[in-house]
């Protein structure tokens, strides 16, 4: 059974750096064609893709947030970490991690439950 | 902001058929990138509904189907049921943005 679970602080202050961890099971990120992405959803708004890391450690970022994001993985722990710098109240959102497989057209086939992050002083 | 446009809401009576449009451009749907559809029930994470060329993950009923033409795609729900009341999102890849894009989302209401 494939599962993903996000963890991180529920509250961060403006200008701080957010660090989120996605812990997954049931698959290996080192398997060819495997990918993990981060996606967020502001309250009442649409989904927004943030970043992706691939089985070969290639990394891709949203062009609008590229300068603030870093994605990394610890394959020994089955974790993918996202850091976002200089947090602002507009970054208040639920953050999801999701698996992708190239053989399925890169669809986000399994999602974590999400973690709500509020940015406020 | 989303580059794929969906109607904010659609509604239908139980048993009816509803469709949700997803309008993109030549850099995403028109460029023949795959379009995927997700269902998000209230207070839950999105769930993959249809991927690639009209593929449904295990457990998704065949009441859900999709189509694509030019720079647009559509999701159809036939035999509408109360449990279908949710938000639905389309998603593709955009070559101009070099990233994944989602639709604006459509709320389906079962009357």
Provide a compact summary of the structure.
The complex is a heterodimer of chains A (121) and B (111). Chain A contains no helices and eleven strands.
Chain-wise SSE layout:
The complex is a heterodimer of chains A (121) and B (111).
Chain A: E1 3-7, E2 11-12, E3 18-25, E4 34-41, E5 47-54, E6 59-61, E7 69-74, E8 79-84, E9 93-101, E10 108-111, E11 115-119
Chain B: E1 9-12, E2 18-23, E3 36-40, E4 47-50, E5 64-69, E6 72-77, E7 86-94, E8 99-102, E9 106-110
Q: How would you describe what is shown here?
A:
The complex is a heterodimer of chains A (121) and B (111). Chain A has 121 residues and is an all-beta fold. In chain A, 0% of the residues lie in helices and 53% in strands. In chain A, strands 2, 4, 5, 6, 9, 10 and 11 form a 7-stranded mixed β-sheet that branches. Chain A has a 4-stranded antiparallel β-sheet with strand order 1-3-8-7, with no helix packed on it. The model of chain A has no long low-confidence stretch (mean pLDDT 97). With 111 residues, chain B is mainly β. Chain B contains no helices and 9 strands. In chain B, strands 1, 3, 4, 7, 8 and 9 form a 6-stranded mixed β-sheet that branches. In chain B, strands 2-6-5 form a 3-stranded antiparallel β-sheet, with no helix packed on it. In chain B, strand 3 (36-40) and strand 4 form a beta hairpin. Classes of the chains: A mainly beta (121), B mainly beta (111). The interface between A and B is medium-sized, with 22 and 25 residues.
């Amino acid at each position: 059974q494939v599962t993903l679970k996000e963890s991180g602080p529920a509250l961060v202050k403006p200008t701080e750096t957010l660090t989120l961890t996605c812990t997954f099971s049931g698959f290996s990120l080192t398997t060819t064609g495997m990918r993990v992405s981060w996606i967020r959803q502001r309250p009442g708004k649409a989904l927004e893709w943030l970043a992706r890391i691939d089985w070969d450690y290639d990394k891709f970022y949203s062009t609008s947030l590229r300068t603030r994001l870093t994605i990394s993985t610890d394959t020994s722990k089955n974790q993918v970490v996202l850091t976002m710098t200089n947090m602002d109240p507009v970054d208040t959102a639920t953050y999801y991690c999701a698996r992708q497989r190239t053989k399925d057209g890169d669809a986000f086939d399994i999602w974590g439950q999400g973690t709500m992050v509020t940015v406020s002083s | 902001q989303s580059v794929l446009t969906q109607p904010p809401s659609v509604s239908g009576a139980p048993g009816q058929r509803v469709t949700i449009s997803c309008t993109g451009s030549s850099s995403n749907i028109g460029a023949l990138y795959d379009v995927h559809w997700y269902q998000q029930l209230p207070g839950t994470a999105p769930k993959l509904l249809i991927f690639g060329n009209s593929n449904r993950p295990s457990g998704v009923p065949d009441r859900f189907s999709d189509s694509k033409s030019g720079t647009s795609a559509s999701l159809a729900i036939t035999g509408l049921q109360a449990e279908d009341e949710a938000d639905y999102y389309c998603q593709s890849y955009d070559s101009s943005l070099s990233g994944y894009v989602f639709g604006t989302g459509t709320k389906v209401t079962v009357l």
